[in-house]
Amino acid sequence: MSSSLIRVTNMNITGMTLDGKITVGNIGKFYFQKGIPLNIIFDCLIKKDIVVDWISLKDELINNGMSLNRIKHLLSENINDSYGKQYRDDIISRLGL
Q1: What is the pLDDT of residue 30?
Q2: Cross-sheet strand order for the sheet of 51-52
Q3: Whole domain around residue 75: which residue ranges?
Q4: Contact at 8 Å (CB) between 27 and 39?
Q5: What is the number of other CB atoms lying within 10 angstroms of the CB of residue 22?
Q6: Domains in the chain: how many in total?
């Protein structure tokens, strides 16, 4: 089921977590080109038990001209909405934001 989501949405499988979950990139495309809010994308991925490739997403945001400050604000708000504060704090810290 998750591979069909990736095929339909053109998200790239970028790896696998230690517990066997698929990680996907190319999420910025849906935010920038299709206008889909990140928290909606995150919620859909959570339902499919798919993990965001956070480094890939940060790189996409930078490549689209976003400042690190803006990225921190954008991701903080949307990760908190979808995953909660503790997960948000961990991801923001790991990304060096």
Answers
A1: 87
A2: 12-16, 22-25, 51-52
A3: 2-94
A4: no
A5: 20
A6: 1
Q: Which amino acid appears at position 20 of this protein?
A: G
Contact partners, residue 62, CB within 8 Å, separation at least 6:
68, 71
User: pLDDT digit string (tens) for 53-62?
Assistant: 999 999 999 9
Identify which of 23, 80, 81 has the alpha carbon closest to the alpha carbon of residue 91. Answer: 80
- Compute the distance between CA of residue 85 and CA of residue 93 in angstroms, rounded to an integer: 12
Q: Any bridge partners for residue 13, and if so which? A: 24
List the alpha helices (DSSP H) in 1-97: 2-9, 27-32, 38-47, 54-63, 68-83, 85-94
What tokens appear for 31 in the block? 């935010």
Amino acid at 25: G
- Tokens coding 48: 């499919």
Residue 48 backbone dihedrals phi, psi, to 5 degrees: -95, 5
> The whole model's pTM is what?
0.85
